[in-house]
Protein backbone atom coordinates (compact mmCIF):
# COMPACT_ATOMS: atom_id res chain seq x y z
CA UNK A 1 0.00 0.00 0.00
CA UNK A 2 1.26 3.46 -0.93
CA UNK A 3 0.10 6.93 0.10
CA UNK A 4 0.60 9.62 -2.53
CA UNK A 5 0.20 13.33 -1.75
CA UNK A 6 -0.45 15.22 -4.99
CA UNK A 7 0.27 18.90 -5.59
CA UNK A 8 -2.00 21.62 -6.98
CA UNK A 9 -3.94 20.11 -9.93
CA UNK A 10 -5.87 23.25 -10.92
CA UNK A 11 -8.27 21.55 -13.26
CA UNK A 12 -5.64 19.59 -15.19
CA UNK A 13 -7.62 16.37 -15.25
CA UNK A 14 -5.55 14.76 -17.97
CA UNK A 15 -2.39 15.35 -15.94
CA UNK A 16 -4.02 13.78 -12.88
CA UNK A 17 -5.07 10.68 -14.79
CA UNK A 18 -1.63 10.33 -16.38
CA UNK A 19 0.03 10.58 -12.97
CA UNK A 20 -2.26 7.98 -11.41
CA UNK A 21 -1.58 5.65 -14.34
CA UNK A 22 2.19 6.10 -14.02
CA UNK A 23 1.98 5.38 -10.29
CA UNK A 24 -0.15 2.29 -10.99
CA UNK A 25 -2.57 3.67 -8.42
CA UNK A 26 -5.18 1.18 -7.24
CA UNK A 27 -8.13 2.34 -5.10
CA UNK A 28 -8.52 0.16 -2.05
CA UNK A 29 -4.83 -0.66 -2.04
CA UNK A 30 -3.34 2.85 -2.34
CA UNK A 31 -4.36 6.23 -0.99
CA UNK A 32 -4.44 9.64 -2.67
CA UNK A 33 -4.16 12.83 -0.66
CA UNK A 34 -4.40 16.22 -2.37
CA UNK A 35 -2.94 19.50 -1.09
CA UNK A 36 -5.94 21.49 -2.37
CA UNK A 37 -6.51 23.75 -5.39
CA UNK A 38 -7.80 20.86 -7.45
CA UNK A 39 -10.09 23.32 -9.29
CA UNK A 40 -9.89 26.50 -11.40
CA UNK A 41 -7.51 27.73 -14.12
CA UNK A 42 -7.49 24.49 -16.10
CA UNK A 43 -10.50 23.21 -18.08
CA UNK A 44 -11.23 20.07 -16.02
CA UNK A 45 -12.47 21.27 -12.64
CA UNK A 46 -15.63 19.14 -12.82
CA UNK A 47 -13.70 16.04 -13.85
CA UNK A 48 -11.08 16.53 -11.13
CA UNK A 49 -13.73 16.76 -8.41
CA UNK A 50 -15.63 13.78 -9.79
CA UNK A 51 -12.52 11.62 -10.09
CA UNK A 52 -11.40 12.30 -6.53
CA UNK A 53 -14.92 11.87 -5.17
CA UNK A 54 -15.21 8.54 -6.99
CA UNK A 55 -12.22 7.19 -5.06
CA UNK A 56 -14.24 7.30 -1.83
CA UNK A 57 -12.23 6.48 1.26
CA UNK A 58 -9.09 5.99 -0.85
CA UNK A 59 -8.83 9.76 -1.37
CA UNK A 60 -8.64 12.81 0.85
CA UNK A 61 -8.18 16.48 -0.01
CA UNK A 62 -7.52 19.57 2.10
CA UNK A 63 -9.20 22.90 1.48
CA UNK A 64 -7.32 25.28 -0.80
CA UNK A 65 -7.96 28.93 -1.57
CA UNK A 66 -9.43 28.02 -4.96
CA UNK A 67 -11.92 25.66 -3.33
CA UNK A 68 -12.91 28.58 -1.11
CA UNK A 69 -13.23 30.72 -4.24
CA UNK A 70 -15.55 28.11 -5.73
CA UNK A 71 -17.75 28.30 -2.64
CA UNK A 72 -17.67 32.09 -2.76
CA UNK A 73 -18.88 31.93 -6.36
CA UNK A 74 -21.62 29.49 -5.42
CA UNK A 75 -22.72 31.68 -2.52
CA UNK A 76 -22.84 34.79 -4.68
CA UNK A 77 -20.20 37.12 -3.30
CA UNK A 78 -17.15 36.54 -5.49
CA UNK A 79 -16.29 39.64 -7.52
CA UNK A 80 -16.00 37.57 -10.69
CA UNK A 81 -16.74 33.95 -11.53
CA UNK A 82 -13.99 32.31 -13.64
CA UNK A 83 -15.20 30.34 -16.64
CA UNK A 84 -13.44 27.24 -15.29
CA UNK A 85 -15.62 27.39 -12.16
CA UNK A 86 -18.83 28.17 -14.06
CA UNK A 87 -18.64 24.61 -15.35
CA UNK A 88 -18.97 23.33 -11.78
CA UNK A 89 -21.81 25.70 -10.90
CA UNK A 90 -23.75 24.84 -14.08
CA UNK A 91 -23.26 21.07 -13.85
CA UNK A 92 -26.30 18.89 -13.03
CA UNK A 93 -24.39 17.42 -10.08
CA UNK A 94 -23.18 20.79 -8.77
CA UNK A 95 -25.01 20.43 -5.45
CA UNK A 96 -23.23 17.17 -4.60
CA UNK A 97 -19.85 18.54 -5.70
CA UNK A 98 -20.26 21.77 -3.71
CA UNK A 99 -21.32 19.82 -0.62
CA UNK A 100 -18.21 17.67 -0.95
CA UNK A 101 -15.99 20.75 -1.31
CA UNK A 102 -17.64 22.48 1.65
CA UNK A 103 -16.81 19.50 3.88
CA UNK A 104 -13.11 19.36 3.00
CA UNK A 105 -10.78 19.49 6.03
CA UNK A 106 -8.20 22.25 6.35
CA UNK A 107 -5.49 19.88 7.52
CA UNK A 108 -4.48 16.22 7.32
CA UNK A 109 -2.20 15.07 10.13
CA UNK A 110 -1.19 11.42 10.17
CA UNK A 111 0.59 11.12 13.50
CA UNK A 112 1.69 7.54 12.99
CA UNK A 113 3.44 8.37 9.73
CA UNK A 114 4.43 11.83 10.99
CA UNK A 115 3.01 13.59 7.94
CA UNK A 116 1.08 16.85 7.91
CA UNK A 117 -0.64 18.10 4.74
CA UNK A 118 -1.80 21.69 4.39
CA UNK A 119 -2.57 23.80 1.35
CA UNK A 120 -0.51 26.90 2.16
CA UNK A 121 1.35 26.90 5.47
CA UNK A 122 1.47 27.02 9.25
CA UNK A 123 2.34 30.14 11.23
CA UNK A 124 5.63 29.68 13.12
CA UNK A 125 4.10 29.98 16.58
CA UNK A 126 1.51 27.22 16.10
CA UNK A 127 2.32 23.85 17.62
CA UNK A 128 0.93 20.83 15.79
CA UNK A 129 -1.95 20.42 18.30
CA UNK A 130 -2.78 24.12 17.91
CA UNK A 131 -2.81 23.77 14.12
CA UNK A 132 -5.15 20.80 14.38
CA UNK A 133 -7.45 22.69 16.73
CA UNK A 134 -7.63 25.70 14.41
CA UNK A 135 -8.31 23.48 11.39
CA UNK A 136 -11.13 21.63 13.17
CA UNK A 137 -12.72 24.89 14.26
CA UNK A 138 -12.68 26.22 10.68
CA UNK A 139 -14.21 23.00 9.39
CA UNK A 140 -17.06 23.25 11.89
CA UNK A 141 -17.70 26.87 10.89
CA UNK A 142 -17.69 26.09 7.17
CA UNK A 143 -20.24 23.27 7.40
CA UNK A 144 -22.51 25.26 9.72
CA UNK A 145 -25.12 27.86 8.85
CA UNK A 146 -22.51 30.49 9.60
CA UNK A 147 -20.25 29.23 6.80
CA UNK A 148 -21.31 31.62 4.00
CA UNK A 149 -21.19 34.74 6.15
CA UNK A 150 -17.86 33.70 7.67
CA UNK A 151 -16.34 33.17 4.23
CA UNK A 152 -17.72 36.48 3.01
CA UNK A 153 -15.99 38.27 5.88
CA UNK A 154 -12.79 36.25 5.40
CA UNK A 155 -12.67 37.27 1.73
CA UNK A 156 -13.25 40.89 2.71
CA UNK A 157 -10.29 40.84 5.06
CA UNK A 158 -7.94 38.93 2.80
CA UNK A 159 -8.70 40.61 -0.52
CA UNK A 160 -10.35 43.99 0.01
CA UNK A 161 -9.21 45.17 3.44
CA UNK A 162 -5.97 43.33 4.29
CA UNK A 163 -5.20 45.83 7.03
CA UNK A 164 -8.06 44.29 9.03
CA UNK A 165 -6.45 40.89 8.77
CA UNK A 166 -3.03 42.31 9.52
CA UNK A 167 -4.38 43.95 12.67
CA UNK A 168 -5.24 40.50 14.01
CA UNK A 169 -1.52 40.14 14.68
CA UNK A 170 0.16 42.38 17.23
CA UNK A 171 3.82 42.90 17.98
CA UNK A 172 2.75 42.73 21.60
CA UNK A 173 2.96 39.05 22.52
CA UNK A 174 0.30 39.21 25.21
CA UNK A 175 -2.17 40.97 22.90
CA UNK A 176 -1.43 38.38 20.23
CA UNK A 177 -2.22 35.52 22.59
CA UNK A 178 -5.50 37.14 23.60
CA UNK A 179 -6.68 38.23 20.15
CA UNK A 180 -4.75 37.29 17.04
CA UNK A 181 -4.01 33.68 17.90
CA UNK A 182 -7.72 32.97 18.26
CA UNK A 183 -8.98 34.73 15.12
CA UNK A 184 -10.64 32.32 12.68
CA UNK A 185 -10.06 34.88 9.91
CA UNK A 186 -6.35 34.74 10.56
CA UNK A 187 -6.46 30.94 10.69
CA UNK A 188 -8.24 30.52 7.35
CA UNK A 189 -5.81 32.92 5.70
CA UNK A 190 -2.83 31.08 7.18
CA UNK A 191 -3.92 27.59 6.18
CA UNK A 192 -5.04 28.48 2.65
CA UNK A 193 -2.99 31.52 1.58
CA UNK A 194 0.13 31.91 3.73
CA UNK A 195 3.50 32.22 2.02
CA UNK A 196 5.67 34.65 3.97
CA UNK A 197 5.26 35.86 7.53
CA UNK A 198 7.12 37.24 10.53
CA UNK A 199 8.34 35.21 13.51
CA UNK A 200 5.03 35.71 15.36
CA UNK A 201 3.00 34.95 12.27
CA UNK A 202 2.72 38.53 11.05
CA UNK A 203 1.24 38.28 7.57
CA UNK A 204 2.93 39.88 4.60
CA UNK A 205 0.58 42.09 2.62
CA UNK A 206 2.99 41.87 -0.32
CA UNK A 207 1.48 40.21 -3.38
CA UNK A 208 3.98 37.38 -3.73
CA UNK A 209 2.35 34.70 -5.87
CA UNK A 210 5.00 34.88 -8.58
CA UNK A 211 7.94 35.65 -6.32
CA UNK A 212 10.53 33.20 -5.14
CA UNK A 213 11.43 32.46 -1.56
CA UNK A 214 14.02 35.25 -1.15
CA UNK A 215 12.31 38.26 -2.74
CA UNK A 216 11.12 39.93 0.49
CA UNK A 217 13.56 41.63 2.85
CA UNK A 218 11.17 41.71 5.82
CA UNK A 219 9.32 38.41 5.94
CA UNK A 220 10.61 34.86 5.56
CA UNK A 221 8.79 31.90 4.03
CA UNK A 222 6.72 30.33 6.78
CA UNK A 223 8.77 27.12 6.71
CA UNK A 224 12.08 28.87 7.48
CA UNK A 225 11.18 29.39 11.14
CA UNK A 226 11.68 26.72 13.83
CA UNK A 227 8.52 24.78 14.60
CA UNK A 228 7.59 24.66 18.31
CA UNK A 229 6.48 21.62 20.24
CA UNK A 230 7.50 17.98 20.61
CA UNK A 231 7.76 15.84 17.45
CA UNK A 232 7.52 18.96 15.28
CA UNK A 233 11.04 18.76 13.87
CA UNK A 234 10.63 15.20 12.58
CA UNK A 235 7.22 15.66 11.00
CA UNK A 236 7.04 15.78 7.20
CA UNK A 237 5.30 19.01 6.12
CA UNK A 238 3.67 18.74 2.69
CA UNK A 239 2.15 21.82 1.07
CA UNK A 240 1.24 23.49 -2.23
CA UNK A 241 0.09 27.00 -3.15
CA UNK A 242 3.47 28.49 -4.14
CA UNK A 243 4.27 27.62 -7.75
CA UNK A 244 7.06 30.20 -7.97
CA UNK A 245 9.20 27.99 -5.75
CA UNK A 246 9.02 25.32 -8.47
CA UNK A 247 8.79 22.71 -5.76
CA UNK A 248 10.63 22.19 -2.49
CA UNK A 249 12.34 18.94 -1.55
CA UNK A 250 14.16 19.06 1.76
CA UNK A 251 14.35 16.72 4.70
CA UNK A 252 10.87 16.82 6.27
CA UNK A 253 9.66 19.56 3.87
CA UNK A 254 7.94 18.96 0.53
CA UNK A 255 6.43 21.73 -1.60
CA UNK A 256 4.40 20.15 -4.40
CA UNK A 257 3.11 23.05 -6.50
CA UNK A 258 5.21 22.73 -9.65
CA UNK A 259 2.96 24.60 -12.08
CA UNK A 260 1.25 21.71 -13.84
CA UNK A 261 -1.51 23.95 -15.22
CA UNK A 262 1.08 26.11 -16.97
CA UNK A 263 2.81 23.23 -18.65
CA UNK A 264 5.08 22.38 -15.73
CA UNK A 265 4.97 19.22 -13.66
CA UNK A 266 2.36 17.51 -11.53
CA UNK A 267 4.22 16.28 -8.47
CA UNK A 268 3.36 13.59 -5.92
CA UNK A 269 5.10 12.77 -2.66
CA UNK A 270 5.10 9.08 -1.71
CA UNK A 271 4.89 8.92 2.07
CA UNK A 272 6.16 5.40 2.63
CA UNK A 273 9.31 5.81 0.52
CA UNK A 274 9.92 9.52 1.19
CA UNK A 275 10.39 10.35 -2.48
CA UNK A 276 8.85 12.50 -5.18
CA UNK A 277 7.24 11.45 -8.46
CA UNK A 278 6.77 13.86 -11.37
CA UNK A 279 4.51 13.87 -14.42
CA UNK A 280 5.17 16.27 -17.30
CA UNK A 281 2.04 18.17 -18.30
CA UNK A 282 1.06 19.77 -21.59
CA UNK A 283 0.28 23.45 -21.42
CA UNK A 284 -3.28 24.09 -20.22
CA UNK A 285 -4.89 27.39 -21.14
CA UNK A 286 -5.98 29.29 -18.06
Kindly list the characteristics that best describe this protein.
12 strands, 10 helices, five-stranded mixed β-sheet, alpha/beta, globular
Describe this structure in words.
- By secondary structure, this protein is of the alpha/beta class.
- It has a single domain, classed as Purple Acid Phosphatase, chain A, domain 2.
- The protein is built from ten helices and twelve strands.
- The protein has helices at 13-22, 45-54, 65-74, 83-89, 94-102, 128-142, 147-160, 162-166, 173-178, 184-193; strands at 3-6, 31-34, 59-61, 108-110, 115-117, 196-197, 220-221, 236-239, 248-250, 253-255, 265-270, 275-280.
- The strands form three sheets. The protein has a five-stranded mixed beta sheet with strand order 3-2-1-11-12, with helices on one face. Strands 4-5-8-10-9 form a five-stranded mixed beta sheet, with no helix packed on it.
- Helix 6 (128-142) packs across helix 10 (184-193) and helix 7 packs across helix 10 (184-193).
- The chain is globular, with a radius of gyration of 18 Å.
- The mean pLDDT is 89.
Number of helices: 10
**How many separate domains make up the residues?**
1
- Radius of gyration from the CA trace? 18 Å
Q: What is CATH's topology name?
A: Purple Acid Phosphatase, chain A, domain 2
Supply the CATH class. Alpha Beta
Q: Biggest β-sheet: count, sense, barrel?
A: 5 strands, mixed
- Classification by helices and strands: alpha/beta
Shape: globular
Query: From N to C, what is the helix and strand string?
Result: EHEHEHHHEEHHHHHEEEEEEE
Question: Per CATH, which architecture?
Answer: 4-Layer Sandwich
Mean pLDDT: 89
Q: Low-confidence spans: pLDDT under 50, at least 5 residues?
A: none
The CATH superfamily is identified as Metallo-dependent phosphatases
Give me the count of strands: 12
Terminus-to-terminus distance: 35 Å
Proportion of residues in β-strands:
15-25%
Amino acid sequence: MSTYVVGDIHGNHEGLLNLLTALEFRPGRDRLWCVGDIVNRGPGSVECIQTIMSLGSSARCVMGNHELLLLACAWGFAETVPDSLETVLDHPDSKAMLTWVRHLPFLIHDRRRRVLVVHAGLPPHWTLPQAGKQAKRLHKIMISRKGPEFLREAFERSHNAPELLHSEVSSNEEAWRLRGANSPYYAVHALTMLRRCGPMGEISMHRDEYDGARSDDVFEPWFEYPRPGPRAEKTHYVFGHWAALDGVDRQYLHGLDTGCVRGGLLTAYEVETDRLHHMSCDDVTE
